[in-house]
Structure formats: structure tokens, C-alpha cells
Specification:
Layout: E1 23-28, E2 31-38, E3 46-48, H1 49-55, E4 69-70, E5 76-77, E6 79-89, E7 96-105, E8 113-115, H2 117-122, E9 126-128, E10 133-137, E11 143-147
Parallel strand pairs: 2-8, 3-7
Antiparallel strand pairs: 1-2, 1-6, 3-8, 4-5, 6-7, 9-10, 10-11
InterPro entries: Peptidase_aspartic_dom_sf
């Protein structure tokens, strides 16, 4: 088990106090998905339709989902299906790769994806919204950091 401390070095450049969300660029299926919101309160990883369509994967690869998805305002969300895709955080020797399930939904959003608890756990990421930073262990076994944008 790794020790993953955060320090004041991680907070450089952040204006405090803040309530900024942790937003980053995530590589999904080889495509850089900008404006991915890290949300430890979400029980699912979400890929919004706009980003899914830009990736040109095709809806025929979606798996039907029989359970309802409840949106931020408590209403049922139109769910197109689910898909398992490769996710990469970092580059080169700092990269971490996992396969993750995403629910594809068709609702307007300021974000292109939501990184929920399933992906946070699969990547064994430690999140600090205070530092707007995520720490993870790379495929090579080194401790790496990703700063929000």
C-alpha cells in the first residue's frame, strides 16, 4: 500500500477559498475528453451523448440498460445504454490504464463526462478537491498526480 500525501505544493496557483469542481482531461478509447467532472458522489461513470457522438463509436455498440437513472434534479434521465471503454490517465511511464463502464445519456451538460466512484475505485485514485488534484499509481508502479484544469 502506498502513502499518498498532499502538500502545499499541490495547492500552488489555486486562489483560496474556492469551491471549484475538479475537472480534467481524460483519455477514453484513445480520445481526449475535455471537461470531465470528477464526482465522488456519483454511483456511475457518465459519458454525455455529445462526447460519445464525437468519438464515432456507434450506438450499435451500446448495451441496453434496464434500470432507471436519476438525474441531478431527481428526474429520470434518458439513458441510451452502457459501454465498456479503455480509460487512460497520464502519459508514457506515468500512465494508468483500466477498462471502465460508462452510461451514455442524452441530456444537456456543461461537462462531457463524469468520473464517478466506479472509475475512481478502479484506478485506485485519491482525490483532493481542496488541491484540485488526483493522485494514482501508474502502470509502472510510481505515484503520479493529475491536476484539474
Amino acid at each position: 500500500m502506498f502513502s499518498i500525501p498532499f502538500s502545499e505544493e499541490d495547492a500552488k496557483g489555486i486562489v483560496f477559498p474556492h469551491d471549484d469542481p475538479l475537472v480534467l482531461v481524460l483519455t477514453v478509447n484513445g480520445a481526449d475528453i475535455k471537461r470531465a467532472l470528477v464526482d465522488g458522489g456519483s454511483s456511475a461513470n457518465i459519458l454525455f451523448a455529445r462526447a460519445f457522438d464525437v468519438m464515432r463509436i456507434g450506438r450499435k455498440y451500446l448495451t441496453l440498460v434496464s434500470y432507471p437513472v436519476i438525474g441531478f434534479n431527481g428526474s429520470t434521465v434518458r439513458l441510451e445504454g452502457s459501454i465498456v471503454l479503455q480509460v487512460r490517465m497520464g502519459e508514457g511511464s506515468a500512465a494508468r490504464d483500466v477498462m471502465a463502464e460508462f452510461l451514455v445519456i442524452y441530456v444537456p451538460s456543461a461537462y462531457n463526462a463524469i468520473v464517478g466512484r466506479p472509475l475512481i475505485h478502479d484506478m485506485q485514485v485519491v482525490v483532493s478537491t481542496y488541491h484540485l488534484t488526483m493522485v494514482y499509481v501508474s502502470n509502472a508502479g510510481t505515484t503520479e498526480r493529475v491536476r484539474g484544469s
